[in-house]
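Fold this sequence, please.
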Amino acid sequence: MKTKKKNTASKNKKQIKIAVAGVGNCVSMLAQGIEYYKKNKTDVGLMHSDLGGYKVSDIKIVAAFDVNEDKVGKDFAEAIFEPKTINTVKIANVPKSGVKVMKAPVLDGIGEFLGTKVRVSNKKDVDVVAALKKSGAEILINYIPVGSYKATRFYADAALEAGCAFVNFIPEFIASDKAWVKKFEEAKLPLIGDDNKGQLGASILSRVLANLFKERGGKVERMYQLNFGGNTDFLNLLEHSRLKFKKISKTETVQSQLAKRLEDENIHIGPSDYVPWLKSRKIANVRIEGKTFGDVPILIDLKLDVEDKSVASGVAVDAIRCAKIALDRGIGGVLESASAYFMKFPAKQYPDWRARQMLEEFIEGERER
């Protein structure tokens, strides 16, 4: 869909100061991407080169929290290339920033399998709220390990207390929870979530195909999406108790696009296994069986091979900039358009074409729904 664009590139905007919870592969690629687009005059890989007057290079990481002893106390630029747990591809050098990775409370952030690779730092926990305020962070992004129920809520509370917008990129339900939405509305702080829907990943591919069946009169009878990879996300998800909300998020993002919900036994979507040598590549096998005109069978069987954190960051840079323009405009509460377009499990699901339309309207200055 084409939308009328305003000339916002000439606006003199200040930097977008963000804090990151979890210094893993996603944050490594995000930090590298900021440098990459600062040095390379290209918009390849970007959904929006300019978003509300902000470039990707306007994003600045001013605070970072982790629990890993191999990262805590180190300059952020060094920690994002720590080889034991960081294995995403390298696209740019990141200069030292003077930002030290701070020790945060562990809570439930480290599971059984991840604990075999991560040794928790014995340094004293920092006061996260005080650190956020001191850093001048405007937005806190949540990229801690999947299954961190308590830790995610700890960071959401810290954002509220420190006066930061909150972007929840993992499948713990904050922006889709009415009680949390109300808290951010009352604080007049923007909230985006839940669970990053990669730029060109397995979830968006499955959603598009499901919607295609609906729009073209086909019928989906059964489907699966089997994912495996070699980063710490897949290692962490070997612990099945940490899979609960991930499976809900990944399944509902596809079910929401079908003409009729499939019975549980006819749909399987979720992480399947950990293959270390794949590093941060994700392999997704998608199979859809259904019917077309005349009740004639159709079968789609495809494979996706993608650098998982690249497509995650393609979404992250836009979600962060949307949170910033909401702050500029004094908008609090969940950003419905950004959540619907960028996340797997927003408070309300929309077809992606409609979510994109809403997002463009929001960027152009229309009121949030």
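The chain is about 35% helix and 20% strand. The CA atoms of residues 19 and 68 lie 17 Å apart.
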